[in-house]
């Protein structure tokens, strides 16, 4: 897909810029790397995304802590990578921890908390909880939001990290 390839190229360049300007352990550098992992994951390269997310998550935990929104979004991505590469148990542990931290930090009705809760329910095959999360996401976003179409199709939901541009 051309759009995905272009997004990959742009994010790779952004990560290089962040590294050069801010250093390896800066939260914006690590957040940009987590964004890159999302594009890599979307392209089906789950092992590569897992490596990127694992490194970014470790750095984010050190630089901004386990409860920072960047860290939680990266952990959500890593759970997807782990699930896709066959480590369902570790994926579940990270996903449950992430939704718990997100609820404590942002509240149960925050869209990222709801996305993480949907993912936990999806991974567990818990249809009632998936349905409840989708209903809450509809309240948060309104009808017709693209994220809702993904949820209704039974696709894991990403939570976005948007570091400022350099």
Description of the structure:
The chain is mainly alpha-helical and 166 residues long. It has two domains: 1-87, Tetratricopeptide repeat domain (Serine Threonine Protein Phosphatase 5, Tetratricopeptide repeat), CATH 1.25.40; 107-158. The chain has eight helices and no strands. It has helices at residues 2-22, 27-42, 46-63, 69-84, 88-106, 111-124, 127-141, 146-152. Helix 2 runs antiparallel to helix 3 (46-63) and helix 3 (46-63) runs antiparallel to helix 4 (69-84). The longest helix has 21 residues, at 2-22. The mean pLDDT is 95.
| Percent in strands | under 5%
The oligomerization state is single chain
Shape: globular
Taking the alpha carbons of the first and last residues, their distance comes to: 27 Å
Q: How would you characterize the largest beta sheet?
A: none
Poorly predicted tracts of residues: none
Provide the gyration radius in Å. 15 Å
Contiguous helical run count: 8
At the first level of CATH, the class of the largest domain is Mainly Alpha
CATH-defined architecture of the largest domain: Alpha Horseshoe
On the 0 to 100 scale, the average pLDDT is 95
Derived from helix and strand composition plus strand pairing, the structural class reads mainly alpha
Task: Give me the secondary-structure topology.
Elements: H1 2-22, H2 27-42, H3 46-63, H4 69-84, H5 88-106, H6 111-124, H7 127-141, H8 146-152
Helix pairs in contact: 1-2, 2-3, 2-4, 3-4, 4-5, 5-6, 6-7
Key phrases:
mainly alpha; 8 helices; Serine Threonine Protein Phosphatase 5, Tetratricopeptide repeat; single chain
């Amino acid at each position: 897909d051309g759009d995905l390839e272009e997004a990959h190229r742009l994010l790779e360049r952004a990560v290089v810029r962040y590294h050069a300007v801010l250093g390896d352990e800066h939260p914006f550098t690590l957040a940009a790397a987590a964004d890159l992992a999302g594009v890599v994951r979307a392209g089906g390269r789950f092992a590569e995304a897992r490596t990127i997310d694992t490194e970014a998550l470790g750095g984010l935990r050190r630089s901004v802590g386990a409860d920072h929104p960047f860290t939680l979004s990266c952990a959500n991505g890593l759970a997807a990578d782990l699930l896709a590469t066959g480590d369902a148990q570790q994926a579940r542990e990270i996903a449950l921890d992430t939704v718990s931290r997100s609820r404590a930090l942002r509240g149960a009705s925050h869209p990222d908390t709801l996305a993480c809760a949907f993912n936990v329910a999806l991974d567990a095959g818990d249809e009632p909880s998936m349905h409840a999360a989708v209903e809450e996401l509809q309240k948060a976003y309104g009808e017709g939001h693209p994220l809702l179409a993904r949820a209704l199709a039974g696709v894991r939901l990403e939570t976005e990290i948007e570091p400022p541009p350099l």
